[in-house]
Amino acid sequence: MSVDAADTPAITAEAAQDRAAPASPAPRHELAAVDPATAPTSPAAPASAAAEALVVGGLQPFTTIDYPGALAAVVFVQGCPWRCGYCHNPQLQPRVKPAEAAGPGWAALRPWLARRVGLIDAVVFSGGEPTLDPALPAAMAEVRAIGLKVGLHSAGIYPQRLAAALPLADWVGLDLKAPPADDTAHDRVTGVRGSAAALRRSLALLAASGVAHECRSTIHPALHDDAALLAMADALAAAGVADWALQICRPPKGSTLAPVGAGWPAAGLVERLRARCARLILRDPA
Ligand code: SF4
Q1: What is the pLDDT of residues 17-73, one digit of tens each?
Q2: What secondary structure does DSSP assign to 111-151, as a single string?
């Protein structure tokens, strides 16, 4: 498959390094706004008024790394209530889109996505925390209706909303920020007290859903010692999660986190983690 560059909507120069990886061992993303004046129009996509309420914070028109094995576009949904110290997309944290990020919403993306059918395989909803947005299920349903797969990145912040979205998802990447049973460690990463409870419920829902998935962790030695990483591996094995993607934190500008030195985590620890996981995936630093 290839993408016709001439058909890609105009992109602003705004860029971001990453979604938490997403809240996540999120792979690197560029954030971009679609220029409504240049977004192609097509009546092909089924429209729903509910989907048009989606607060779109940006678009990655083409990616090979955000949905395993698929060529995808990424729609970044605005808003996240957590405040991870390594978040590379702080502009997506406020629910109200910053004025400088103003751009078209779902109504402008809909016809553009319809024209991508046959050129990309999937649309990934990322963020921010996409399940925060009540319009997410309607937008996911529209993507399904035009024949594209639906990917979802989530930090598991809203378990009930994740449960509602799972039947509409073909693949989910769930962030695991700390050992699920360690409330203090989880709160230290998210900056929000009590955040681990939501993750625990979301992890259980996802593992039981039958939807293809992976868990993803952005790791830093100041946040994750050896025992924490081993506990995370054990928790995923106990939950029945086979795929765990690790990404070493690349602290954003202004972060209190120090750069991570080469050689961490040590090879011996990686082997111990690998022994606990069905599939341990090491990704480039986030
Ligand atoms: S603050 Fe929100 S968007 Fe940023 S890394 Fe954390 S969960 Fe992800």
Answers
A1: 333 333 333 333 334 444 444 444 444 446 789 999 999 999 999 999 999 999 999
A2: HHHHHHBTTBSEEEEESS-GGG-TTHHHHHHHHHHTT-EEE
Cβ atoms < 10 Å from Cβ of 58: 30
Predicted pLDDT at 47: 75
Structure tokens at 15: 């860029």
Candidates 31, 87, 88: which one to mutate for ligand 1, based on the most atoms within 8 Å of Cβ?
87
User: In three state form, how does the secondary structure of 190-250 look?
Assistant: HCCCCHHHHHHHHHHHHHHHCCEEEEEEEECCCCCCHHHHHHHHHHHHHHCCCEEEEEECC
Calpha distance 172→101 (Å, rounded): 26
DSSP 57: E
Cα of 131 from ligand 1 centre, angstroms: 12
Both tokens assigned to 99: 């004025």
CA distances for 234 relative to 106, 239, 280, angstroms: 40, 9, 12
pLDDT at 63: 96
CB distance 89 to 139 below 8 Å:
no
Atom 3, ligand 1: residue with shortest CA distance: 128
